[in-house]
Amino acid sequence: MSVSCGVECVVILGCMRWAWKRCTYVGSDDSAAWPCATDDEFAPVPHICRLILAVYEPDLRNPQFPPDGGYRLNPDWVVKRVTYEQTHGRSPPYLIYADHDHREIVLAIRGLNLVKESDYKLLLDNRLGMQMFDGGYVHHGLLKSAIWLLNEESETLKRLWLENGSDYRMIFAGHSLGSGVAALLTVIVVNHSDRLGGIPRSKIRCYALAPARCMSLNLAVKYADVIHSVVLQDDFLPRTATPLEDIFKSIFWDTFIPEGRKLRDPRRLYAPGRMYHIVERKFCRCGRYPPEVRTAIPVDGRFEHIVLSCNATSDHGILWIEREAEKALERMKERCSETVTTPPKVQKLERLQTIEKEHKDALERAVSLNVPHAVTAEEEPLNEQNTEASDSRNEDTQVSTSKSSKGRTNWDEVVEKLFKKKELKNLQQNRDAITPNQ
Question: Which residues form the Fungal lipase-type domain (predicted)?
């Protein structure tokens, strides 16, 4: 009798602990220790939000649902818009925009359409450990969509970049489902920038708004210098495990899984790149507060827990992200204007150096936590050079095979080479890393 009572007490205490941790966990806890972002680095985000919103409009000259202040873009600079009928379900609709004011070429991809079966097929086309890529794992369906999009638009992007004097930045942006496509497309382009006219890595940027978990942790940290993810408070998608059949396990069981075990699983997918967390609500306080933006390249504790909040779905909306991002940016500028008579606390050059150091520190942190296939900043270029040197002769002899009859790049064959190049090097490591977690 006493034993059974003791067991019941343990079970009750365990359930109470779980309920307390789940019910008191709020979105702002994810970034509580992060520093605040500066207006210089966050300035592009509201503009990028409006460009993604523009994909939803059939006629930008007569918009039906413009955000506050309008889209603030020139319809004459829209190079191309592609609808569902043109993508045949292989990619969400997108827009290519030559932004001559900001000297940028932007590929903006819309988010999940709740009434389109093709979008669900794209999102659900993945199983744990299904797709290996670039020394890690990525979402299979989103990678296929990124390759298809490059096959369709790489020549257009290359032409625009060369026509503008090879001086513009190349921006890939997406929301929700489109964010995963944009992030993986960016990874491919960074590895094969010569196919887009030789655009340097420093001129490539990706903005993933309300990002899907689409790549393993080593890749999420590795590409944090080019991929920027933006999360509004309690948004559920960056915290939702993929494949989606694990969502209930994320809600009920992830509380009990040790952090180290999660980090050691090379197949686990994460939101990509550097994180910008827009925080506007606090625990046990009603209403919205003036938003602040916190930023970091987290390794452990990277949006791991779904927040049980009535705002978990509304915070995912692109309209809300645009509004709160605009408010946050205005607040940052106001703070700077208040101290215009004195030197800024963080000067621009100093902040750029800090961002570079944060990336190096994150890479080293991933190595110290034994994240599978993580490498330091010094090791990564060496590995790439060794791999490229060993394949240089084969690459020269196979250039023609990656071109179609019209001279266009066949991205399926280009990416397949990256599969082979990385998989042969890491296949045995993956087997060794996965085995203990089975």
Answer: 106-242
Is residue 431 very low, low, confident or very high in pLDDT (cuts 50, 70, 90)?
very low
Report strand pairing: 94-99 vs 78-82.
antiparallel
Please tell me the distance from the alpha carbon of residue 54 to that of residue 178, in angstroms, as a whole number. 14
Higher pLDDT, 296 or 401: 296
**Helices then strands, each counted (H, E), the chain:** 14, 12
d(CA 193, CA 207): 18
Q: Look at residue 110 and tell me whether its pLDDT is greater than 70.
A: yes
Which amino acid type is present at position 431?
Answer: R
Averaged over 107-133, what is the pLDDT?
90
Pair 328, 292: CB distance under 8 Å:
yes
Would you say the C-alpha torsion 310, 315, 317, 320 has a positive or negative sign? positive
Distances from the Cα of 431 to the Cαs of 131, 261, 379, 428, 438, in angstroms? Answer: 14, 16, 22, 5, 11
Q: Which pTM was predicted? A: 0.86
Give the bridge partners for 105, in sequence order: 98, 170
243/183 Cα distance (integer angstroms): 17
181: its two tokens? 């496509």
CA 51 to chain CA centroid, Å, is 17
- Packed helices 140-163 and 411-434: angle between N→C axes, nearest 10 degrees: 140
